[in-house]
Amino acid sequence: MVAEKKGLLSKWLKGMGKVREGVQEQFSRLWSGGTIGENDWETLEETLIQADIGPMLAIELVEGFRELKKNSSGNQDWRDWLSRTLLQELAGNESRLFPEFEGMDLKALLLIGINGVGKTTVAGKLANYCREKGEKISLIAADTFRAAAIEQLQIWADRAKVHCIKGSTGADPGSVVFDGMEASLMRNDTLAIIDTAGRSHVNKNLLAELEKVGRIVGKHLPSERVENLIVIDALAGQNAFLQVESIGKSLPIDGVILTKWDSQAKGGIIFRIHKELGLPIKFVGVGEKIEDIIPFDPESFVQALVFDQAVSDQAFS
Ligand SMILES: Nc1nc2c(ncn2[C@@H]2O[C@H](COP(=O)(O)OP(=O)(O)OP(=O)(O)O)[C@@H](O)[C@H]2O)c(=O)[nH]1
Ligand SMILES: [Mg+2]
How many angstroms is it from 122 CA to the middle of ligand 2? Predict the structure, then answer.
């Protein structure tokens, strides 16, 4: 089990490889360099912006680092300062699901996001992850738009060894969710995971449909037992930020799941989403297999970013 977790972590680190090295190189060079010109600071700022952390944090980090260098007595380590600063940025990130609820009554995860980001894959991975933690689960196939979507979710349900509740292709997703929630309650499930169709974050009709689905879930369960989770592709960079911002205007978002972290993601988007939208990052997807999902742990993430180090195993339990 520990070996498995370390395997996942190494995928995580590898995913961030190039950008992480680029940022570290800049900090190291400026830290040990003598005279530093304005253009050196600008280059650092650009490198940070390219890592997707957003302009606000990039400017703050450059200013903080300038101060540190100016006042440094020589025995400080910029890595300690950077890890402390980045960790502060992620303070309060609640990665647990349903932090305000304990008990065995039904809860629901509504997975939303644009096309192809990995919602259905996340539904399967989370079903497996939560089943292993003792939940009794139904997956609800509310992507009635694409012909193969229902079948795809059934395959994930089989892999995850959980039940799948299906409507028919072309049916109103709201009615599928309504029936699904009723069925899940009847089955005494403790968790319903709802897979929805990918939808553009600028399409008003599709967003209105999502709002309706959210209302239907809300009629069945109190808010502390519902989490609307937006799935974003870590490779989408700043566009992912816009998706969260825009979809969040139609449906209150409780948390973010980043997928495809294994494919050279930059990762900085985590900071921007947390800082500017105040949303917690809940999980990170690091591959296409069922076990390729990690609960997001800020400390491990920052350690890995700044020190390239594997972290304590309990962070991944
Ligand atoms: N490398 C990698 N691939 C992933 C990850 N998560 C999902 N994928 C792949 O991304 C593709 C799309 O995944 P889906 O789960 O079908 O995405 P979706 O959001 O449900 O797509 P739509 O329902 O069409 O909107 C598939 O080929 C997945 O295998 C991940 O963490 N890493
Ligand atoms: Mg899908």
Answer: 9
Distance 300 CA to ligand 2 centre (A): 29
Q: How far is the CA of 226 from the centre of ligand 2 (A)?
A: 20
Residues 139 and 262 in one domain: yes
Query: Which of these three, 89, 124, 146, is where a domain ends?
Result: 89
Pocket-testing residue among 259, 284, 289, 296, ligand 1, by greatest number of atoms within 8 A of Cβ: 259
Residue 304 located in a structural domain: no
CB 48 within 8 A of CB 57: yes
The band of 148, judged by pLDDT with boundaries at 50, 70 and 90, is very high
Q: pLDDT-based confidence at 223, cuts 50/70/90?
A: very high
Taking the model in full, what pTM does it have? Answer: 0.92
Going by alpha carbons, the residue nearest to atom 21 of ligand 1 is: 116
Position 1 confidence tier, pLDDT thresholds 50, 70, 90: very low
**Residues with Cβ within 6 A of ligand 1?**
113, 115-121, 143, 149, 198, 259-260, 262-263, 285-288, 292
Kindly identify the ligand whose nearest atom is closest to the C-alpha of 11: 1
Q: Are residues 119 and 42 in the same domain?
A: no
Q: Within 13 Å of residue 145, how many CA atoms lie on the same side as its CB?
A: 11
39 CA to middle of ligand 2, Å? 45
78-129, pLDDT tens digit by residue? 999 999 999 999 999 999 999 999 999 999 999 999 999 999 999 999 999 9
When divided into structural domains, the chain yields a total of: 2
> Domain range for residue 37?
2-89
Atom of ligand 1 at shortest range from CA of 113:
19
Contact 183, 97 (CB under 8 A): no
Q: Where are the alpha helices (DSSP H) in the chain?
A: 2-15, 17-32, 38-50, 55-71, 78-89, 119-132, 149-160, 173-186, 204-220, 238-247, 269-272, 298-307
Say yes or no: 149 and 216 in one domain. yes
Taking only the tens place, the pLDDT of each residue in 234-275 is 889 889 999 999 999 999 999 999 999 888 777 789 999 999
